[in-house]
Specification:
By secondary structure, this protein is an alpha/beta fold. It has one domain: Acetylglutamate kinase-like (Carbamate kinase, 3-Layer(aba) Sandwich). The protein has an 8-stranded mixed beta sheet with strand order 5-8-2-1-11-13-14-12, with helices on both faces. A two-stranded antiparallel ribbon has the order 3-4. It starts with a strand and ends with a strand. The structure holds adenosine-5'-triphosphate and magnesium ion. The site of magnesium ion has 7 residues, from helix 5 and helix 7.
Length: 257
């Protein structure tokens, strides 16, 4: 099976959770699956920016990215968070390779909207490098930064990055592992299955907001681009990766309308 695992949220804040996920993902690779990892790191980036007296601002779950914070975006997402994950995957036994969408022109973006600054909207994915690595048994670990026209660099929401790469790779399964059990309804109950119409309704009603709004939009986009199965689940849950790959219904599964 070809799969893409997106790691985000406070999962990336806990050494124990990162270690457990690295072990689970390595096991998949040992079982012959081809795996690509895409990660976020928004919480760590917000903390770093706060230390520089920059207050993080979000619109529809997307981080407003003025050019002067791009250096911090690269330092944290493509730097610390990416390198730390690579070291942990390495320790768990994978031949992990850290990269960004800029490398080998893998992900190209354009400016989404002037009021979001350097937030990129993915225009094109060239999966060749990721395929080459995954086929040869390496584990690509991709930070959510993309290239663009000329030598432009964009900050891409990690869920959009994951969805675009999953579509470009034509994966069988896209897993969004985050720090909640899945998509929650207005009473806090877990929604086991959701289609694009229902997802849009949750966003309109303000029930799915912030990071979950971005994730739902990215998830429905992935289904449209031909990804077979998309699930949003809690990365802290026991043996979650293997259970999802085995088809166990856990978290929230996106289903066609
Ligand atoms: N209806 C909802 N159901 C579940 N979570 C929701 C909902 N609405 C908002 N959220 C928030 O969305 C968050 C998940 O998105 P968030 O962007 O924080 O994590 P992530 O995408 O996994 O991490 P990163 O952005 O670093 O890649 C949850 O922690 C929760 O606070
Ligand atoms: Mg997010």
């Amino acid at each position: 099976m070809k799969l893409l695992v997106k790691l985000g949220g406070t999962l990336l804040e806990s050494t124990k959770t990162r270690g457990a996920l690295a072990t689970q993902i390595c096991r998949l690779r040992d079982d012959g699956h081809q795996v690509v990892v895409v990660h976020g790191g928004g919480k760590r980036l917000s903390r770093y920016l706060a230390g520089l007296d920059h207050k993080s601002e979000f619109r529809n779950g997307l981080r407003v990215t003025p050019p002067e914070i791009m250096d911090a975006v690269l330092r944290i997402l493509a730097g610390s968070v990416n390198r730390q994950l690579v070291a942990e995957f390495q320790d768990a036994g994978a031949k992990a390779v850290g990269l960004t969408g800029i490398d080998s022109g893998t992900v190209k973006a354009t400016q989404m909207s002037p009021d979001l600054g350097l937030v990129g909207s993915v225009e094109d994915v060239d999966p060749a490098l990721l395929e080459l690595l995954a086929e040869r048994g390496y584990l690509p670990v991709v930070a959510c930064v993309a290239g663009g026209e000329g030598s432009a660099i964009f900050n891409v929401n990690a869920d959009q990055m994951a969805s675009a790469c999953a579509g470009g790779l034509g994966v069988d399964l896209l897993l969004f592992l985050t720090d909640v059990g899945g998509v929650l309804d207005s009473r806090g109950g877990l929604i086991p299955r959701i289609n694009a119409t229902q997802a849009n309704r949750l966003i309109e009603d303000g029930v799915a907001k912030g990071g979950m709004e971005a994730k739902l939009r990215a998830s429905t986009g992935a289904l449209r681009s031909g990804v077979q199965r998309v699930v949003i689940a809690d990365g802290r849950a026991d043996a979650i990766v293997g259970r999802l790959v085995a088809g166990e219904p856990t978290g929230t599964e996106l289903v066609p309308t």
